[in-house]
Amino acid sequence: MPRSSKNSSAKGGPVTLATVAARAGVSAQTVSNAINSPDILRPETLERVRRAIDETGYRPSRAAQTLRTRSSKLIGYGIQPSPPGAGGAVMDRFLHALSQAVDEAGYRILLFASPPDGPSLKGYEELLAQHEVDGFVLSGTDRSDPRQAWLTKRGVPFVGFGRMWSGRQVGDWVDVDGASGTDAAVEHLVAQGHRKIAFLGWERGSSGAGDDRAEGWLRAMKRHGLPTRGRRGQSVNDIDAARAAVKPLLDGGATAVIAASDMLALGCYQSLRERRMLPGRDVAVVGFDDSPTAEILSPALTSVAQPLEEVGQECVRLLLARIATPDAPPERILLQPSLVIRDSSTISTSIADE
């Protein structure tokens, strides 16, 4: 029998549980068990039912599954607007990875808009009131974020892409070790002969992830006995602002700049070009996030890559585990980034002896 894409049989009638049962030579209850409790069936029976489901094109009713299992198979995710540029592309990659992992687990993502000025409870309150979502994936977690405590108090499962950064950790999270990434960038530049390595980050205290990335640079600089005074600049995540913020660092003789994002690195590129200098040849530049822009820049940008596919998979794994076992101890996973070396951090011809 050819597969039907509309849950109907070759004779035009609907493909039902009974249709599958007749095809497999089992009872309708056995088909139901194969869908909802496959572990209780013998392997050969389960295989026969699954083959019949595939051959008939049967698709279980989501509404019926929800009534039986008290599960909507829906995961909520609030999308915050991103400014044009590298940062938006990074979150697009994460959302794609998350969607794929959710889909493979038999769930669907229910997207809703979050305000541009930071996390808010409004969307979560409305979604819980209007839909029986099974849990949430949070991103953009930071200090004073109210969502984790609010969801915990109400017993709603969630997992965060990002740490709390507030001292008191709540719930499960998956994050990328930003400090490890910038530490590796310093090691790479030191190996190239650089000693005057500057860091261009976001404003101190404005972002836990930003402070984490700055800490990795500071840690590695101290380990090598390199001076950090006058080598740190700060900017909002904007190309023009970064172009202005990096000027004092270049005036101070920096031969290399590590930026907290590819967006800030683009500002470094612009500032160097204004001085008729070339990234990689005159001043090494390293970004963070390994956005699609990094590879197509001229010269191509060395950048710290986040394992976003693994982040998406781990977020879904932790969330489903939390849904299944609400009282289990919280699990936190810190993943390692990798440094993707390109032309912007090749050996410079202008490194001054110290």
UniProtKB/TrEMBL annotation:
Organism phylogeny: Bacteria, Bacillati, Actinomycetota, Actinomycetes, Kitasatosporales
CDD domains cross-referenced by the UniProt entry: HTH_LacI (cd01392), PBP1_AglR_RafR-like (cd06292)
Domain HTH lacI-type: 15-69
Keywords, alphabetical: DNA-binding, Transcription, Transcription regulation
Domain of life: Bacteria
InterPro entries xrefs: HTH_LacI, LacI/GalR-like_sensor, Lambda_DNA-bd_dom_sf, Peripla_BP_I
Record's protein name: Transcriptional regulator
UniProt GO MF annotations: DNA-binding transcription factor activity; transcription cis-regulatory region binding
